[in-house]
Amino acid sequence: MTERPDLPATIAVLGAGSWGTTFAKVVADAHPEVQVRLWARRPEVAEEINTHHRNAKYLKDIVLPGNVVASADVADVVVDAPLVVLAVPAQTLRPQLASWKPLLDPEAVVVSLMKGLERGSDARMSEVIKEELGLSDDRVAVISGPNLAMEIARKEPTASVVACTDEDVAQWIARLCTAAYFRPYTNPDVTGVEIGGIVKNVIALCVGICDGKGMGDNTKATVITRGLAETTRLTLALGGDVQTMAGLAGLGDLVATCSSPLSRNHTAGRLLGEGLTLDEVSEQMTQTAEGIKSGRAVLDLATKLGVDMPITEAVVAVLEGEIAVEELAPRLLARELKSEGELQ
Ligand SMILES: NC(=O)c1ccc[n+]([C@@H]2O[C@H](COP(=O)([O-])OP(=O)(O)OC[C@H]3O[C@@H](n4cnc5c(N)ncnc54)[C@H](O)[C@@H]3O)[C@@H](O)[C@H]2O)c1
Ligand SMILES: O=P(O)(O)OC[C@H](O)CO
Questions:
Q1: pLDDT (tens digit, 9 = 90+) per residue, 44-78?
Q2: How many CB atoms lie within 10 A of CB 296?
Q3: DSSP 90
Q4: What superkingdom heads the lineage (predicted)?
Q5: Domain ranges across the chain
Q6: Ligand 1 neighbourhood includes 58 CB (under 6 angstroms)
């Protein structure tokens, strides 16, 4: 096994949006002696972080600790970093990895914070990372859970999941990101943890649409519960663990995202429900709502595997203009009756 310093001198976070910046802050708060280097796509964002310790576009007036340092040059950020954390929009990851590959430390562990499925390949982000960087399972981890960035940036108590097939690596990462307000659990089920984070965005779009149409809490609870059922079916078909679905990366994230006005996916759904077109919603959204693009990939993957995902199917039909938002609930309610316990 590779010897890794328990507390590295530096770690790298690529992507200075809401979650990348917040995660950098978590590690920096937890370990003031570690330099957390953050890659920002735009030099002015790096400049603002270094000069004013703020990233106002994404985190308003939150003050970042002094040991978060930013750069718009990836090479500067990843040099000698034994841990590289990725937080860019899922659909943009693959081409960026190709250009980052020669810059990474050859022994680095790579962590995905992303909750999207790649369109076309239907690949999870951990799979894209392994393919593009040529890494083995024990060098790739995923962090996912009920983790609305703004709440964590405000130091509100939050738990999460670090998933890696190698328990030592998962524990190492968990120790690095354990802060007074952030408690990670470990889980070897990378597939289940990732699928939970991906599909909840599509389910949150559905809940948002229902909220936008003025529907109440019975509707919301129904969509969340049946959303969890279809997420579980997909997870099991991919070899994931049913128990993960009852945990933070399954039910936990689904509840947080479907309930919170901070959620971009929930917000995008609500705007659709209020009558905006998808183009108008996209114009209003200044941050990534992964479900909008991942919905189609989730549906394609489910179809390939013969998994029934009626809520995802209905949301994709809305996103692709096949049905109006008014038709979403009637379409779901008109389905053939079945037993609640059926997992296929
Ligand atoms: N924000 C949250 O609360 C949260 C929590 C958990 C997981 N996530 C996941 O983390 C990932 C990143 O989300 P975020 O909230 O930080 O997104 P964001 O929209 O706030 O920021 C995205 C960042 O990626 C950068 N970027 C790099 N390459 C890009 C490109 N080609 N096109 C557009 N932007 C590019 C942007 O400049 C920006 O800094 C997503 O997969 C999301 O689902 C977000
Ligand atoms: O704002 P959203 O909808 O991308 O959700 C953020 C996080 O994934 C919640 O855990």
A1: 999 999 999 999 999 999 999 999 999 999 999 99
A2: 19
A3: G
A4: Bacteria
A5: 10-189, 191-333
A6: yes
Q: Running DSSP on this structure, what letter comes out for residue 91?
A: G
**pTM, rounded to two decimals:** 0.98
Q: What is the ipTM of this complex?
A: 0.99
Architecture of domain 10-189: 3-Layer(aba) Sandwich (3.40)
Cβ atoms of residues 237 and 313 within 8 Å: no
* Each residue's pLDDT tens digit, 105-125: 999 999 999 999 999 999 999
CB < 8 Å & 24+ apart, contacts of 170-173 = 170/141, 172/4, 172/6, 172/109, 173/83, 173/109, 173/111, 173/141, 173/143
Is the distance from CB of 163 to CB of 140 less than 8 angstroms?
no
* Residue 200 annotated to the active site: yes
Q: What is the CATH number of domain 191-333?
A: 1.10.1040.10
| Cα–Cα nearest to 15, from 96, 82, 80, 116 | 96
Distance CA 79, CA 88 (A): 19
Q: Ramachandran region of residue 306, left (φ > 0), alpha (ψ -120 to 50) or beta?
A: left
Check if 196 has its Cβ closer than 6 Å to any atom of ligand 1: no
What is the distance between the alpha carbons of residues 34 and 9, in angstroms, rounded to a whole number? 5
Say which ligand is closest to the CA of 265: 2
Q: Whose CA is nearest to atom 6 of ligand 2?
A: 148
